[in-house]
Fold this protein.
Amino acid sequence: MNKKTIIRTFEKIALYMELLGENPFKVGAFRKAANVLELDPRSLSEMDDILKLKGIGKGTGAVIIDLLEKGESDLLKELEIEVPSGLIPLLRIPGLGGKKIAKLREALGIDSLDSLRAACESHEVSKVPGFGKKTEEKLLQEIELLGTKKGKLPVWQIETIVKSIEAEMRGISEIIRFSVAGSFRRAKEESSDVDFIIVTDEPSVVREKLLEVLPIEETVAGGDAKLSVVLDMADLVDADFRFVTEAQFATALHHFTGSKDHNVRMRQIAKSKGMKISEYGVETEDGTVKTFDSEKEFFAYFDLPFIPPSLRMDGREIDRADEIAGLVTLEDIRGDFHMHTTWSDGGYSIREMVEACRKKGYSHMVITDHTHYLKVANGLTPERIRNQISEIRKLNEEYDDIEIFCGTEMDILPDGRLDFEDDLLQELDFVIASIHSNFNQSQEQIMERLHAAISNPYVNIIAHPTGRIIGQRDGYNPDVPQLIEWAKQYNKILELNGNPHRFDLAIEYLEIAQKADVKIAINTDAHAIDQLEHMGIGVKYAQKAWLKKETVVNTWPLEKFIREIIRK
DNA sequence: TGTGGGCGCACATTTGCCGTTTGCGGCAA
């Protein structure tokens, strides 16, 4: 018997009880028991007090004893007999929950998708109290659609969708202001929908205009408080628009940014003080509703610092609020150290990239075009990069407000050699090494390549260390903890590639790296000027790993950057 | 069903919108 089995047993019991239309708190008690075990870091053999855990009581404890003594649970066995297995897929039908399924089963003996479909077609469902004609029609539709439902979309796809919706909203004059909310605002790697808060005095006008200008596949719901639609934008995507007044904006933005767990924690705090948080404000004990000019003021009202959206996760961020002041922010960023120009596969000249970085207020930057192995990217030969170096040096003399360093993003070749010889690397200020080929090699071969790069004295940083593309490919599967150890050993930087396609390293590895005192560079890897903006979302992603300012080398002043990295 | 506070009974992770039906389930952050 292991912990996983116990956890899965609890979850199954909860699921079956839900299908029986059991008391939701009873169902919840089994889910909670599963959760308690999951959150406990100890293995089963280390838990001598398992029956004494908070959340495990008489009923749930009996299940554990059953499992430990007999390897199976009597309760689950009974439920499995009582609940037809065909019922389980019914929970996936939007609009059907445990209670409605139980009702249908009791009234019509529904025990599978097929019997439900038949009951809808013979119009028996609409005769059941609580169900009507519309529900019956909708159920039939949903049954046909089952399985074709859209999954989660990667953040880079969501970003495109958000931008295009925002462009449409700017054209609606009745919209006073708006903001994206939801999981995209929290910089999640994947989202299942997009959420917007809209300030307007004329919600119904805005609603109708949105329905006109957006590529609507389906209108799910639409009132004066919200509009829910399915949009047809390359992929199908759910979109929610919430209409609020200016005064409600801050609390609405907070509420619809989530996460749900974060909101629940905040509301618990309010409740313990006799107050009530909703998206419309904070209701105090005397019944008056207080609103706020900003999320910052809202948090301050509960004696909390501003918690950045990206940190609003499982609620535990509230317990760590005093650490927030030390985390990296976009304002701390002084430079971007990975970008491409027309010399390789970038879209803009060196000068144009420099001007763009100046506009961002950076004090320094590094030009890092590809090297000649990467033919598709027009990688630079030794001769061309020497020309580029002299061009950059000349250009650098024109500016006294930004320092332009000569760098490269050098390929680590499939056989473990590096694309440039040491004597050439020596002439550069900053060397990024990265893998762009032969992803299917064994982990051993990949690690040999990475070791060759990270142990080279002229290499400063390993870029996008796993090669993953979110929602598309897993990368080349390096042993990242080992790579982090090497980074520590050779005093090298690892990259957090801020391009939303990558977010590489991922959160869990960033946390390990920071613990090991390995420095991180957040880079945009920009191939065009507008991609320099990805520093913002890159920093948000870094915050999710609780990266401190001093961990991130982009926050270092120019002098420190030169002293510790360029001329170390 | 579990916990807490008191041995029987609340309250449980919060709050509000919409659709469909006319009280409430499902859903969302």
Q: What stands out?
A: Chain A has a mean pLDDT of 93. Residues 330-566 of chain A form a domain with the TIM Barrel fold (CATH 3.20.20.140). The longest strand of chain A covers residues 235-244.
